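QA checklist item 7 of 12: single-chain prediction sanity check.
[x] sequence parsed
[x] length recorded as 308
[x] structure emitted
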Amino acid sequence: MKIPYSEAIKFKNQTDWLNFYYIHFGNFWVQKQWIDKDNNPFFSKWWEYSPGSNSKANARLIFPIEIVIDIDCKSKERAKLVSENIKNKLKNKKINFSLWDSGGVGYHFHLFYPELKNFSLQEREFIKREFLKWIEIDKGYVDLTTVYKKRLISLECSKHRKGGSKKLIEYIDCFGVNELPKQVIEKALSELSKEENFKTNPEIVEFSKSDMKCIQFIEEGNIPNTIKDFYRRAAFIYATYMVHKHTKEFILKRLMKHLNMSEQTAKLIVKYVNKGRVMSCRGRRNLLRDVGLLHLCDGCKVKINNKD
């Protein structure tokens, strides 16, 4: 028998919450997080929770139908002000939620939207991201990684790794009653369509003999996925070179196409290189050497000078 959220909100320990979510969602991923006496953080391996299994978890997976707003500030006072602002916005939009003190510095809002289960993993990510834009939250104080498909959040009524316990502050019946605004869904699916179009329909790039061989290698899209950390390095090699030849919109499309990056990650790299960051040829060679691809520089027409 499924217990309503209005009853679950009365639970006082983490095991009750684990069992409550198991009844509603089946097996789900959990983790144990803690800090040792020297203030070093530790994280266990994830495991699937089911009744009778290890119940010492204090972090759980964010569920497919759940939207979490994680207030991430440097001080408790600032976090409280931000959470009050978001709480008022949610109430004005008549959105049901529960608000929790995380047990650390921040606060967590939990919102449930059953219709999210009708969308794919990627569609849900875009819808959740667009939802956060729709309620006009201040990105500088909110952890935006909660929209991704595999993201953990501290478990209700459990001890936070920083010492406190996650405690309920305010509750407006939120489990299974919210409906997503039509404009949020439409905008999210439109943005997803644009991203997919960027990946499948990039512009053609023509190279001259004076262009770097490493850039041509990345442009051809034959990136070896067995080389650790190469994608991030390749992104900076490519973007810092192309920024002097093409628009940032063009570079964004290429990063998404050839390095299979999300739009958000690609935008961060484009933003970085557009701030005037310059990578020398020598710097590119060092990155290529680190991942065992220095041979790409063999026969390259671009010479390293003493100023690099």
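[x] summary fact logged: The two ends are 69 Å apart (CA to CA).
[ ] second reviewer sign-off
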